Amino acid sequence: MRDQAEKLRELVNEHANNKQKTSGTRVIAVTSGKGGVGKSNLAVNLAIYLSTLGQKITLIDTDLGLANIDLILGITPEYHLGHFFSGERSLSQIVMEGPGGLRIIAGGSGFQELADISEWQLDKCLQQFYSLEKNSDIILFDTGAGISNKVLRFVVAAKEVMVVTTPEPTAIADAYGVIKVLARENSASKVYLVVNMVHKEDEGQQVMNRLVMVAEKFLDFPVEPLGMVFYDPVVTQAVKLQQPFSLMDPHCKAAKNVQNLAHRILSLPEVPAGGFISFWRRLVKMRHLGE
Ligand SMILES: Nc1ncnc2c1ncn2[C@@H]1O[C@H](COP(=O)(O)OP(=O)(O)OP(=O)(O)O)[C@@H](O)[C@H]1O
Ligand SMILES: [Mg+2]
Predict the structure, then answer these.
(1) How much distance in Å is there from the Cα of 242 to the middle of ligand 2?
(2) Which has the closest alpha carbon to 119: 280, 274, 276, 273?
(3) Is position 289 within any domain?
(4) Any idea what the CATH number is for the domain that residue 109 is in?
(5) What is the pLDDT of residues 69-81, one digit of tens each?
(6) Alpha-carbon distance 50 to 48, whole Å?
(7) Does residue 248 lie in a domain region?
(8) How far apart are CA 8 and CA 3, in angstroms?
């Protein structure tokens, strides 16, 4: 058993090293300090647009509380990560297909169980993670809000983190709190900033400049301004109808802004040590953050 596990680990490491030499699967966590700033809506619509650009996208909902992605897409997941970790279902059985060939995985209670995962269980998962990595150019995690959240370790383990805020002072202060933790826990990660629900362009620009400047000055930490998304009534309407806003009205303001964000994401320089398997290794090592 030990031999087999070691061989598998070697195989997966070899694959990860090879992939790192080339492009590698990008793991991007979408997070925020304050709740309700638009993470799930942005994650879903970004994932859809990136899929239409020919990217292989897997969207993983890590929220332990209220359902997010499934509500926005109007789908009811039968299985979630909890079923995978308990061994009831394989990874391919819990993957749902979304618009444009997008692959979606519901979090459910899977992340709580992850805290108790043994080395042996992890080795068992690696082979299936390997196939997920092979089928994904980008893995997007939609996380819950807040720095004391159990989900924080997903953000710290990711090499690319998209912090979402609104122009509201409390949201900005909480976004700074997340950036502070990231600067302390994983200074190797790239942090991108998105300002959502902006009413005027200079309002969004000011928020972006301020946060970038403060992070640089007080944390000596670079934050990459990614872009802004305007407040758009189509988003609220789409949420009510359980449809992604970019499909309901591809020409609406918010959809255009998300398209720009997607192009920006694709144009960013490669982040070393990416990949889903190395992400998961870091994640398991960071159990202390979830307690
Ligand atoms: N650009 C926008 N324009 C107008 N309304 C928006 C926009 N983005 C988000 N909203 C509104 O904000 C609400 C919350 O959005 P969403 O669920 O995506 O936030 P969240 O950050 O994922 O929340 P949570 O922290 O609870 O997971 C939506 O239901 C929608 O009505
Ligand atoms: Mg959400």
Answers:
(1) 14
(2) 280
(3) no
(4) 3.40.50.300
(5) 888 888 888 888 8
(6) 6
(7) yes
(8) 9
pTM, 2 dp: 0.89
Closest residue by Cα to atom 26, ligand 1, is: 36
Answer whether residue 291 is part of any domain.
no
Determine if ligand 1 sits within 6 Å of the CB of residue 40.
Answer: yes
CA distance readout (Å), 200 to 148, 195, 231, 239, 245: 32, 11, 9, 22, 20
- Binding site membership of 41 for ligand 1 (Cβ less than 6 Å): yes
- Inform me whether the pLDDT recorded for 196 exceeds 90: yes
* Ligand 1 touching residue 262 (CB < 6 A): no
Helix, strand, or coil here: 228? strand
Q: How far is the CA of 38 from the centre of ligand 1 (A)?
A: 3
Residue from 236, 248, 249 to probe ligand 1 pocket by mutation (most atoms less than 8 Å from CB): 236
User: Which helix or strand (DSSP H or E) is residue 165 part of?
Assistant: strand 160-165
**Domain that residue 94 falls in:** 2-284
Radius of gyration in angstroms for the set of CA atoms belonging to the chain, rounded to a whole number: 18
How many domains is the chain partitioned into structurally? Answer: 1
pLDDT in tens, 151-192: 677 788 888 999 999 999 999 999 999 999 999 887 678 999
